[in-house]
Design a protein that fits this description.
Number of strands: 34
Number of domains: 5
Strand content: 25-35%
Helix content: 10-25%
Structural class: alpha/beta
Shape: elongated
Largest sheet: 8 strands, mixed
CATH superfamily of the largest domain: Class I glutamine amidotransferase (GATase) domain
Distance between the termini: 40 Å
CATH topology of the largest domain: Rossmann fold
CATH class of the largest domain: Alpha Beta
Oligomer: single chain
C-alpha cells in the first residue's frame, strides 16, 4: 500500500482522544445503603448495562471517525507489490510498448488510447527504483526506442505526448525493436509491457515471438506483461465504410453521379437503419438508410446531380459508432462544366442519318451530356464568333479562307478546342496551306482499304490496332468496352505526314490502324488543343458512327479538347502511403496540405511528376502550385485501411501460448484495481460513523 499524502497520517493520533476520555471518565461511586430503594437496584443494573454498551459504541464510532478521516486524506492506494513481482526474476530492464493504431480510437466514452496512456503510466509507476525503462509508441512505421534509462519524467512525457494514428500498428515488429533496445542494458532481467486493445490486425502470430540475448549469449524469451485496454471484452463492435465508387449517372441528366459504397459490419449484432449520406460542406445532397447483417457487407447507391461544374470536395458518411473515423470517406470529384459547341457541317443532307453532323449531334446532346450544341453549315458556321463557344468541330468541311483560318488559330491559342474530321470535301493541300499551323500533322492523301460493294469488304476493311488506353481520352475503353473500338470497320481514311514542320514533336498519335497509319492525333496549340480524326464521323467512310463506343468517345473528345476532362487517374492512396502527382504542362507542385493544415513532404521526380507523402490522416489533401495557389484538379483524398476497422481480438490464451506460458504475466490493469479508490470507502465509513453517533446521542 502506498500513500499520496503520508503526512496526513499524523492526524490518526486524534483517534486516541476518545480512548483517553473513556479512561478518565471511569469514576467509582461510593456506596450509600438505603433500604427502601433495594427493590430499584435490580432495574438499575439492567439500565446501567445498556448505558455502558451505548458509551462503548459512541467511543468506537468517534474513534473510527478520527481514524478514517486522516487516513483518507493521506490517499492510500493498493498497488502491485513490485518486490513480489521480482522474487523469481529479480529487477528487469523494461520496455513499455504503447499501441497507437487506428483501432485504439475506439471509444465507449473514453477512448482505448486514453486508457492505454493510463496503463502505460501505471506500468512506469510499478517499476522498482533500480529498474531502467524505455517507452515506444507503436505505429505502422515505428522508430526505434531509446535505450532504457532512469529518467522517469522523460518517459512519462513521452506517454503524455503520444497520439493515436490513423493507420495500422505492427506490434510484432515493435516488440522486436523494443527487445533490441533492451539488449543494450547489461541487467540480466528483461521485460516487455504491451499496452494494446489486442486486435488481430496488430499481431503477426506466424512470426516467431521476440527474444533477447541472455547473460550467456543465448537467445531467451523476455518476461511479457499484457495490459489489455479493452478490459477483457470479447469483441469491439464496429461498422465501417470500406469502399467507395463514383460513376456518372447518365440516366439522371448532366452532371449526375451515383455514389456506390460498401458498408461492412464487423460486429456480432446486425446494424439496422444506418443513415448514409452524401455531403458537401454543411449541405446534405442525398440520404438513405442501410441494414447490414452481423459480419456481413452491404452496398448502397445514392444519386446526386450537381448544379454546376468544377472540382467538388465532399464526404460519404454513415451514422457514427464507437469508431467514428471509419464511418466517413472523402472524395474529390471533377464535375464537367457546361460546354458550348459549334458543329460546322461540311456535308448537310435532307435525310438525317445521311447528314454529316447527325451522329455527332446525337452523341453530344444525349442524356447526361453537358454540351450545348449549335449546328451550322460551312458557309454560316465559319463566319460565327468563335469566342462564344468552347469547342469548334469541323466535320468534312472545305478548307476555310485565310481570314477564317486566322480566326480559328486565335480561338485555339486562347484556350478553345478544335476537332477536325475528314471526308470527300477535305483537300489535303488546301488544309495544309490554311490550317498547317493548327493541325497535329499535315494531311497527305486518302487510302481506300476496301470498297463497300466488294463481297470481301468485311475482311479487307481496316480496323484500329493500337489504342493508347493509358491516355485519358481512351481510358474507359478497356476490357469488354474495347470491342466498340476495335470492331469498327474503316473503308477509307486519310494518311498523315510524319509531323508538322511548324511545331515538330508536339503532336501525339493516340490510335492507329492495322497498317500503322494514324487514326487519332492530338496536339497542343497555345492554351488550346486540336484533335484530328482521319476518317468520317458519318457512315460514308466507316461504320464507326453506329458502334457503341462512338457516343462516349465524342463526349470525351469534347471534354478533353476544352480541358474539362479529368486527365489523371483517380488517385487511390491509403493513410501511410505516398502518392504521385502529375501536374499539367509546366505547372509545378509547391506543397501539399493535409486536412489539418500541416505540410506533407513533396519531392520532385526526374519525369516531371511529384511524390507526396507519406500521408498521415484521412481526408482531402490540398495541392498548391508554384505561386502558392490551390490546384484543385490535383487535390486527392486519402482513405483508411479497411483492415484496421476489423476489431476482432486475439484471445488471451492465444497470446499466452504465443509468448510462452512461463514468460507471460497477467496485467495489473483495471481488473486488479478496485473500482472505487480505498480512500473513498474510508470517507464513506467516516460519514456513516458520524450518522450513527448522532443517532445514539438522540436516544
Amino acid at each position: 500500500m502506498t500513500f499520496g499524502n503520508p503526512w496526513f497520517l499524523l492526524g490518526a493520533l486524534g483517534a486516541l482522544i476518545p480512548v483517553l476520555v473513556h479512561l478518565f471518565d471511569r469514576r467509582r461511586p461510593r456506596a450509600h445503603p438505603f433500604g427502601p430503594l433495594a427493590f430499584v437496584l435490580r432495574s438499575q443494573k439492567r439500565t446501567a448495562s445498556r448505558l455502558k454498551l451505548k458509551r462503548l459504541l459512541l467511543y468506537t464510532l468517534r474513534t473510527l471517525i478520527l481514524l478514517a478521516i486522516p487516513i483518507a486524506l493521506a490517499r492510500p492506494e493498493l498497488t502491485r507489490d513490485a518486490q513480489a513481482a521480482t522474487v523469481t526474476r529479480g529487477p528487469a530492464a523494461t520496455a513499455v510498448i504503447l499501441d497507437a493504431s487506428l483501432s485504439m480510437r475506439w471509444s465507449d466514452g473514453t477512448s482505448n488510447f486514453e486508457k492505454g496512456r493510463d496503463e502505460a503510466r501505471d506500468a512506469l509507476k510499478d517499476l522498482l527504483p533500480e529498474e531502467p525503462a524505455t517507452v515506444m509508441v507503436c505505429t505502422g512505421s515505428p522508430e526505434a526506442p531509446p535505450p532504457p534509462g532512469f529518467d522517469r519524467a522523460r518517459l512519462r512525457a513521452l506517454v503524455d505526448e503520444a497520439k493515436p494514428t490513423y493507420g495500422t500498428a505492427d506490434l510484432s515488429r515493435c516488440l522486436d525493436m523494443a527487445a533490441r533496445a533492451l539488449e543494450e542494458n547489461p541487467m540480466p532481467g528483461k521485460r516487455l509491457v504491451v499496452v494494446s486493445d489486442m486486435t488481430a490486425s496488430g499481431f503477426r502470430l506466424e512470426a516467431p515471438p521476440p527474444t533477447v540475448k541472455g547473460p550467456t549469449g543465448t537467445m531467451v524469451k523476455p518476461e511479457v506483461v499484457l495490459r489489455d485496454v479493452a478490459s477483457g471484452r470479447e469483441s469491439l463492435d464496429n461498422h465501417a465504410l470500406v469502399d467507395l465508387r463514383v460513376e456518372p449517372a447518365l440516366q439522371a441528366g448532366p452532371r449526375a453521379y451515383q455514389f456506390t459504397f460498401a458498408v461492412r459490419n464487423f460486429g456480432t449484432k446486425p446494424a439496422k437503419d444506418l443513415e448514409a449520406a452524401v455531403r458537401v460542406g454543411e449541405s446534405t445532397l442525398a440520404k438513405g438508410f442501410v441494414d447490414v447483417p452481423a459480419g456481413g457487407t452491404t452496398q448502397k447507391t445514392l444519386t446526386v446531380r450537381f448544379p454546376q461544374g468544377g472540382t467538388v470536395v465532399g464526404q460519404v458518411t454513415l451514422a457514427p459508432d464507437s469508431l467514428a473515423e471509419d464511418d466517413r470517406r472523402s472524395f474529390v470529384l471533377p464535375v464537367p462544366r457546361g460546354l458550348k459547341a459549334l458543329v460546322v457541317n461540311g456535308s448537310p443532307h435532307a435525310t438525317r442519318y445521311r447528314d454529316e453532323a447527325f451522329f455527332v449531334d446525337a452523341a453530344l446532346t444525349s442524356p447526361g451530356s453537358p454540351v450545348d450544341v449549335a449546328v451550322r453549315d460551312a458557309e454560316v458556321g465559319l463566319r460565327e464568333d468563335f469566342s462564344a463557344y468552347d469547342l469548334v468541330l469541323l466535320l468534312n468541311t472545305t478548307a476555310p479562307s485565310e481570314e477564317e483560318a486566322r480566326k480559328l488559330a486565335a480561338f485555339v491559342e486562347n484556350g478553345g478546342g478544335l476537332f477536325v474530321s475528314v471526308g470527300d470535301h477535305v483537300n489535303p493541300e488546301a488544309y495544309n496551306s490554311r490550317l498547317g499551323t493548327l493541325l497535329p500533322r499535315p494531311l497527305r492523301l486518302v487510302r481506300t482499304s476496301a470498297e463497300r460493294e466488294d463481297p470481301d469488304a468485311e475482311t479487307k476493311t481496316a480496323k484500329l490496332a493500337q489504342v493508347k488506353v493509358d491516355h485519358p481520352l481512351f481510358a474507359p475503353f478497356t476490357g469488354r468496352a474495347e470491342e466498340g473500338l476495335i470492331g469498327a470497320r474503316f473503308y477509307k481514311y486519310m494518311l498523315l505526314e510524319a509531323d508538322s514542320p511548324s511545331a515538330p514533336g508536339t503532336s501525339q498519335v493516340l490510335a492507329t490502324y492495322e497498317d500503322g497509319a494514324p487514326a487519332v492525333a492530338v496536339a497542343r496549340r497555345g492554351k488550346g488543343r486540336v484533335a484530328l480524326f482521319t476518317s468520317t464521323v458519318d457512315r460514308d467512310w466507316s461504320d464507326f458512327a453506329i458502334r457503341t463506343s462512338f457516343l462516349p468517345l465524342m463526349q470525351r473528345f469534347a471534354a478533353y479538347l476544352t480541358g474539362s476532362l479529368e486527365e489523371r487517374e483517380e488517385v487511390r492512396v491509403r493513410v501511410g502511403e505516398t502518392v504521385t502527382l502529375r501536374p499539367e504542362g509546366t505547372q509545378k507542385v509547391a506543397g501539399v496540405r493535409a486536412p489539418d493544415g500541416s505540410e506533407v513532404p513533396v519531392k520532385a521526380q526526374p519525369d516531371g511528376s511529384f511524390v507526396a507523402g507519406p500521408t498521415v490522416e484521412p481526408g482531402v489533401h490540398s495541392v498548391l502550385g508554384a505561386e502558392g495557389k490551390p490546384v484543385a484538379a490535383l487535390d486527392f483524398a486519402a482513405t483508411l485501411d479497411p483492415a484496421e476497422s476489423d476489431l476482432t481480438r486475439v484471445p488471451q490464451d492465444t497470446l499466452t501460448a504465443y509468448f510462452g506460458e512461463d514468460t507471460v504475466k497477467a496485467s495489473t490493469g483495471d481488473a486488479d484495481k478496485p473500482a472505487v479508490p480505498l480512500w473513498t470507502w474510508l470517507i464513506l465509513a467516516a460519514c456513516l460513523a458520524f450518522f450513527f453517533e448522532g443517532t445514539l446521542l438522540r436516544k
